[in-house]
Design brief:
With 230 residues, the protein is mainly α. The chain has one domain. Helix content is 75%, strand content 0%. The protein contains ten helices and no strands. Helix 2 packs across helix 5, helix 2 packs antiparallel against helix 9 and helix 8 packs antiparallel against helix 10. It is globular.
């Protein structure tokens, strides 16, 4: 469970690294590639071959990314490659977290699981950034307030709520609910960070969300239909 938590620590490192070089709206879109990466992990490690509807969903996700990244307006030209690399790495580590969190100690109490995952994540982050800690000491009030907010809403509450809520619904519904993070993050980037979100980007976001819903609900629909016809 602590090793699984390390994936969340890596996701935070890569995602915040991406935001140093990219707009927040683009960074979250790159991280959201965890959807098709997770499908790929299931295929490789669990030998679950993606259904035709899943392949269609992946294609739609890639089309959505094309529009959401605002390539048509040339807005990504000149942005550092390092930012895109960090963004994609955050997608891989987040996909790893979701994949392994569904396989490891699933019957353990959610509070215990979350605590151990957060501990593993903390140990990893401290090990990687230990020598940088003296440079931020003593902690200023603004930095401390930001750190508490980011850690609470970014590393503590999400895994806890996910651990508590995911077993209460089907896996497909859980993934669809998780996908709501995308429009919320982009809307927050627009309202809080004053980033300009074009209609084309909103179209791309809508396509990504529709693709996720199609993959989860479509697969269930075809399984039920096959069972009825059988």
């Amino acid at each position: 469970m602590m090793i699984t938590g390390c994936f969340i620590g890596l996701t935070s490192i890569f995602y915040y690294g991406a935001m140093q070089y990219l707009p927040a709206s683009l960074a979250i879109i790159l991280m959201f590639q965890f959807v098709w990466i997770g499908i790929l992990l299931e295929w490789i490690f669990s030998k679950i071959k993606p259904a035709p509807v899943t392949v269609l969903s992946i294609v739609l996700i890639l089309i959505g990314v094309f529009f959401a990244s605002n390539i048509l307006n040339g807005s990504i030209q000149g942005l550092p490659f390092k930012g895109f690399l960090f963004g994609i790495l955050s997608a891989f580590t987040y996909a790893g977290f979701i994949f392994f969190s569904g396989k490891v100690a699933i019957n353990v109490d959610p509070w215990t699981r979350t605590s151990l995952m957060a501990t593993g994540s903390t140990i990893l982050v401290l090990a990687l950034f230990m020598r940088d800690i003296p440079s931020v000491l003593p902690l200023e009030t603004n930095l401390l307030t930001t750190a508490v907010g980011v850690s609470l809403f970014g590393a503590v509450l999400p895994p806890l709520f996910f651990a508590v809520g995911a077993p209460q619904v089907s896996g497909g519904i859980a993934n669809i609910l998780t996908s709501i993070e995308l429009p919320v993050a982009i809307l927050s980037a627009s309202l809080i960070l004053s980033e300009t979100i074009t209609p084309i980007q909103w179209l791309g976001t809508a396509i990504i969300l529709a693709a996720i819903a199609l993959n989860e609900l479509g697969s269930t629909f075809f399984r039920v239909r096959k069972h009825i016809n059988g």
